[in-house]
Amino acid sequence: MAKARKKQEYTTEKVLDSLNETAYKAENFFEKHSKIIVGVLGVLALVAIGYFVYLKTVLEPKSEKAFAEMVQADQYFQQDSVVLALKGSPGSFLGYEQIVENYGGTKGGNIARYKAGIAYYQLGDYASSVSMLEKFKSDDEILTAQKNGMIGNALVESKKEKEALPYYVKAAEGTDIEIIQTMYYTKAGKLAIQLGQNADALKYFQTLADKYPHAGNGEVEKFIERLKYATGGNGK
């Protein structure tokens, strides 16, 4: 018993010695390199402060200016003067293109990018629409779903149906809003049928029916019945 206690005390002393040695080394390292460590911390602090100042004095004011510049473009867009909304009028007001170019790194510039994508789509410039919408980023699930749906539409119009299908699926899966999910699961289902992907089409329509039993006023159930028959009732 006494031997065991002595062994435990010896082990404890060794652990304490080791901890003391580690603490001494750490303290000694800090003393030797204190100027470097303090310098690095100082640089990091300056970077953080610099970004905060940049955010408050540059980005946020620029974003507000972008939204202010967008007011007139939005008015023309609502009046179906899409070209004016997109291109603006030199010396009078900026269009979405110029707002993206001048304020692209701000929230306002980002929204202008989304609106420009829609404008390009309405003008039949589907490649520019896809390019612009792909660059639009948002934490808003509805805007993101609509963005993906619009990209899908533009790709379909460009005869790129296979590329369009995943965007419809992303649009449907990206939100829990019934009207959006109904729209894009239906588009995905119909496009999958067109592409000969009946099993996938059945999956999209079945997902929609399970979540919203009355979706499509009975149209969804008709698609499910036909697709079950086409796939032998097992979705294969």
Describe the protein's architecture and organization.
By secondary structure, this protein is an all-alpha fold. The chain contains ten helices and two strands; from the N terminus they run H-H-E-E-H-H-H-H-H-H-H-H. It has helices at 2-78, 82-87, 96-103, 107-122, 126-135, 141-157, 161-173, 178-194, 198-211, 219-230, and strands at residues 88-89, 93-94. A two-stranded antiparallel ribbon has the order 1-2. A hairpin with a 3-residue loop joins strand 1 (88-89) and strand 2. Helix 1 packs across helix 4 (107-122), helix 4 (107-122) runs antiparallel to helix 5 (126-135) and helix 8 packs antiparallel against helix 9 (198-211).
Summary of the model, kept short:
By secondary structure, the chain is an all-alpha fold. 81% of the residues lie in helices and 2% in strands. It has a two-stranded antiparallel ribbon with strand order 1-2.
Morphology = elongated
SSE ordering: HHEEHHHHHHHH
Sequence stretches where pLDDT stays below 50 over 5 or more residues = 1-10, 22-27, 33-59
- Strand line-up across the major sheet: 1-2
Percent in strands: under 5%
Structural category:
mainly alpha
Number of strands: 2
Mean pLDDT score, rounded?
A: 78
Backbone CA Rg: 30 Å
Main sheet characteristics: 2 strands, antiparallel
Helical amount among residues, as a percent range?
Answer: over 70%
Query: What is the count of DSSP helices, taking H or I runs of 4+ residues?
Result: 10
Measured distance between first and last alpha carbons: 73 Å
